[in-house]
Write a structure and sequence with these properties.
The protein is α/β, with parallel strands linked by helices. It contains 18 helices and 12 strands. It has helices at about 1-15, 20-30, 35-50, 55-65, 75-90, 95-105, 115-125, 140-145, 150-160, 160-170, 190-200, 225-230, 235-245, 265-270, 285-300, 350-365, 385-395, 420-425, and strands at about 180, 200-205, 210-215, 230-235, 255, 275-280, 305, 320-325, 365-375, 400, 415-420, 430-435. Helix 3 (about 35-50) packs across helix 5, helix 4 (about 55-65) crosses helix 5 (about 75-90) and helix 5 packs antiparallel against helix 6. The protein is globular and about 75 Å long.
């Protein structure tokens, strides 16, 4: 696995130097690499593991450093991070292998003292029983244990209480669940599932949603024959529930104002059995192309994808029976998929509620009388969720809250819902449903 470790250190250093999405950097690098399937699996686990535990690993490095004023290069820091992650979190890797391979990587540094420094620090961590540094109070301890910035731990604790905060932290690390929406418009569900089994993909039928399966796989489901034939698209349960709340009917006119890459658009079109019009929009042409190609693969001819600015009212768009307003957000509900999100400054998110409200307000102008408007985010933040919904109802008396619907089980009569991962094994998500009465 030596090549895998070198590969990961190089990628982590690249990520430090150039801000980008971790999944894009990793997927592109794996595609171009000559790593074996086993090495790719190890590299992926190590890469994402170091990213999601980065705060914890850096605190360990800080606590073990004899001279905290020494500044480590990005490369050396990432060698230490990968070594410490293997020692602390990868039980399948012997301690000796984790240390020896890290030292080998460090020997390639121009400074001959670096390898001794890396060796000494990793071995001291082992001698100390691999214990984490002590913290002053319980919230700081949680922040260190789950590698979550203290401001976010405090935010979740204050806004949702200790139990939900702890659940969000526990589910912010580890492998995210994978679900697919079966395209039953053109294909029988059982035959599609049989094809997945033939390609080595195991699954269980989701008990909450029709045409949904939770999958376990050793390779990407996007590389299967069933995917190529347009028999499914990958979509988290929470996003499928969002479409269930919208409840589109055959022959409806539906607007999806912030659609790309198009997952909710596709589910909406499938729920309509490809009858009616689904107008899907994004601000950028390259992302509109993603919607078009996805709809084409799935055979969904009722989808029309165009460029549009969701913040500005477009008089050329038709009045709609259903409008989906899935706004840009902080993404705090999908941290385990994109761990770099939690390392952003909270100041980066301050302007979002105003932008979200503007989009929601504009979106409401397209809704017919007695039509449905759904507001959603993939974040867990009162400011971006409940406060935006409350402001909308206060300033737009033509709209009233509407029940989410049967798919939501015990929450079916709720008009808004913060979905935490513990509830249905999904991403963190928020859905609010409104109906236009006047």
């Amino acid at each position: 696995m030596a090549n895998s470790r070198k590969f990961v250190v190089r990628l982590l250093t690249k990520l430090d130097e150039n801000s980008s999405y971790s999944n894009i950097i990793l997927d592109n690098a794996l595609e171009k690499s000559d790593l074996t399937p086993q090495e790719k699996k190890f590299a992926s686990a190590l890469f994402y593991g170091v990213l999601e535990r980065q705060l914890t690993l850096d605190e360990i490095i800080k606590s073990l450093s004899k001279n905290p004023k020494n500044r480590l290069s990005d490369s050396v820091r990432n060698i230490l991070r990968t070594g410490l992650y293997q020692l602390k979190y990868m039980d399948s890797v012997p301690d000796s292998a984790a240390v020896d391979e890290a030292v080998k990587l460090a020997k390639k540094d121009r400074n001959p003292a670096v390898s001794g420094f890396v060796n000494g620090m990793l071995r001291e961590f082992i001698r100390n029983g691999k214990e984490l540094p002590k913290r002053r109070d319980s919230l700081e301890t949680l922040a260190l244990e789950y590698s979550c910035p203290l401001w976010l731990v405090k935010k979740w604790n204050d806004e949702y209480g200790r139990e939900i905060c702890l659940n969000m932290l526990e589910t912010s690390v580890g492998q995210a669940p994978a679900s697919v929406r079966i395209n039953t418009v053109f294909h029988d569900m059982n035959s599609t599932l049989d094809m997945l089994l033939e390609d080595g993909v195991t699954f269980e039928i989701n008990g909450l949603l029709p045409d949904c399966a939770n999958v376990c796989f050793s390779h990407s489901v996007e590389k299967t024959k069933a995917y190529a034939e347009g028999r499914f698209h990958v979509q988290d349960i929470s996003s499928q529930l969002c479409c269930a709340a919208l409840d589109p009917q055959e022959n409806d006119i539906v607007l999806d104002l912030c659609s790309a890459p198009g997952g909710k658009t596709f589910t909406v079109a499938e729920r309509m059995k490809n009858h009616g019009r689904v107008l899907a929009f994004d601000l950028h042409e390259n992302r509109v192309k993603l919607i078009k190609s996805g709809a084409e693969r799935l055979g969904l001819s009722c989808v029309e994808a165009r460029v549009n600015n969701a913040k500005l009212f477009n008089p050329d768009l038709p009045a709609a029976d259903r409008v989906l307003c899935d706004v840009p957000c902080s993404g705090l509900g999908v941290i385990r998929r994109k761990p770099e999100i939690k390392y952003k400054s909270p100041k980066d998110f301050e302007r979002l509620p105003e932008i979200q409200y503007d989009i929601l307000k504009t979106s409401s102008a397209y809704v017919k009388q007695c039509g449905v408007l759904v507001y959603s985010t993939c974040t867990v933040s009162r400011a971006e969720n409940d406060e935006v919904a409350d402001r909308f109802l206060k300033e737009n008396p033509d709209f009233e809250p509407a029940p989410l619907g049967e798919c939501f089980g015990d929450s079916k009569n709720e008009c808004r819902l913060t979905i935490t991962p513990a509830k249905w094994g999904s991403d963190g998500f928020f859905i609010a449903k409104f109906i236009r009465r006047r």
